[in-house]
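Limitations

Structures in this collection are predictions, not experimental determinations, and the ligand pose is part of the prediction. Treat each record accordingly. The example that follows, with iron/sulfur cluster as the small molecule, is included so readers can see exactly what is and is not provided: the inputs are given verbatim, and the output is the predicted complex.
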Amino acid sequence: MSAASLVELAAQASTCTACRLSETRTKVVFGTGTADSGLLVVGEGPGRDEDLSGEPFVGRSGQLLDKLIEEELGLTRASFYIANVVKCRPPGNRDPAPDEIAACSGYLDAQVAALDPRVVVTLGNVATRVLLGTDLGITSLRGRLHEWRGRVLIPTFHPAYALRGGGVVVAQMRADLVRAKLALATGR
Ligand code: URA
Ligand code: SF4
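Predicted complex:
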């Protein structure tokens, strides 16, 4: 799938009503960036700031994420792609439900096909479990590389958790981002 078809798909998603999250969302948050660096970052679902702006990770946790990615990988938003497992905000920031995740999965699949990232970083339990198809928790899944659809998947904590957890969690996120940098450099 080409980058042009990704633009078409974003237009299609902007009016999607395939699940109940369409009833309460303001804007669909499809995803932003490019795959110039080979990196795709996947979060859980839009929060309040993202629902209003239509862009992923623009609130406080996004600001922390941007800082860590810039410091550890030397990348800015223009050179990696960032999207969520569900494209519409779950009310009250609850976890997305399994049927909502299933209804939305075609968009993420199409994004992966169009972007063809070498390295995928998942943020937090929801994104990591959905992509790896496991019930295990982030604490046992992070800290190592996983093979995923012929790519390298690196799970890390959600930056919202790091905001609450402080320095120890941030240091672990930094270590995971260094793993991503090495994987991008070596292709594995
Ligand atoms: N949290 C997420 O998982 N995604 C966003 O886009 C914002 C906050
Ligand atoms: Fe469509 Fe996904 Fe939004 Fe549900 S969350 S309405 S499937 S774009």
